[in-house]
Amino acid sequence: MDGTPADQTIPDARAASATAGAAAAPGEHPEPADRQRVKHGGPLRTAVVVNPARVEGLDELRATIEETLAGAGWPAPLWFETTPEDPGAGQARRAVAEGAEVVFVSGGDGTVRSCVEGLAGTEAALAVLPAGTGNLLAANLGLPDDPTEGVRLAVERGRHLLDIGEVDGQAFAVMAGMGFDANLLGDASTTLKARIGSPAYVLSALKHLRDRPMRVEIRIDDDPPLRRRARTVVIGNVGRLQGGVRLLADAEPDNGQLDVAILTPRRLSQWTALAWGILRRHEHVPRMEVLRGSRITVTSDRDQPRQLDGDVIEPRRTLAATVRPAALWLCVYQPDRSPDLAEGSPKRR
């Protein structure tokens, strides 16, 4: 491997963040950009984890990444392809074991989630090069769609330390859900998603508006349990759904907590009012309750479909999520003053 001299590798990123924070005057807090921007003395070693089933033009993508890195004086990356047996976590771990300090991932939400699992708790940073149809993490954080710009972002900008959630030992960076949302994700046609994108989820949702509600008990941290008759419960590390719709307006991926949305519509008119309130960003959305905590357990009266970052997982009666604070470094635009990282993206300007 074309390595980078040891004296040019990135310093411990958490230490760098702490140093930046310590530089603030007493009683003041450093701006997000200053707190998280990491300075380094030279080029970094990189790797690419790519899903060949989701990415068209692999040779072109490889040339784009290598040329952009070379233009910045960075060495050529290691290259790993996912398999049906290992959708990314193992490749990400091998990349780190072989010295990668930035790991680019190109694929859909499932590939990104698997790489999050492989990189969590390491000092290597994840850099997302979106592919597929969902790309929820990229959409939530304003990450670029163009791979050249995605590589430049990793090279030229800092990084941000994010929380992740865990369910049944599996990581998620965006949302976990039980009920209606998992049903619509599972039924959305892959072919239709490839043709029309996000509207495919709307068509799938219409099929499930009249599904039977579930009776759930929800425990948040050490609070007394809540009992609800819900259509879906969504646990979010960030707040945006497909198409940029913001379900959880106050969710932040770096506050050490997860937001919980309990949706309880029963009739079509209530679904309409709920959807309108979300789209118009009303402070109080009818038939939706939002809570927050670091340990959330949702128990249903029967087995329910479940999902993590758009991946449908095994149905069960329970969805138990915990947060791992400050577990993942992500290459992301740096908003100077906003806690919403997407506000630093050129897409939002």
Properties at a glance:
disordered N terminus; alpha+beta; single chain; 14-stranded mixed sheet
Structure, explained:
The structure is a single chain. By secondary structure, the chain is of the alpha+beta class. Helix content is 29%, strand content 29%. It has helices spanning 13-22, 32-36, 58-71, 89-97, 109-119, 136-141, 147-156, 180-187, 190-196, 199-207, 268-279, and strands at 46-50, 78-81, 102-107, 125-130, 159-167, 170-172, 175-179, 214-220, 226-230, 232-236, 258-263, 288-293, 295-308, 311-331. Strands 1, 2, 3, 4, 5, 6, 7, 8, 9, 10, 11, 12, 13 and 14 form a 14-stranded mixed β-sheet that branches. A hairpin with a 2-residue loop joins strand 5 (159-167) and strand 6. Helix 3 packs parallel to helix 7, helix 4 (89-97) crosses helix 5 (109-119) and helix 8 crosses helix 10 (199-207). The longest helix is centred in the N-terminal third of the chain and has 14 residues, at 58-71. The protein starts with 12 loop residues before the first helix and ends in an 18-residue tail after the last strand.
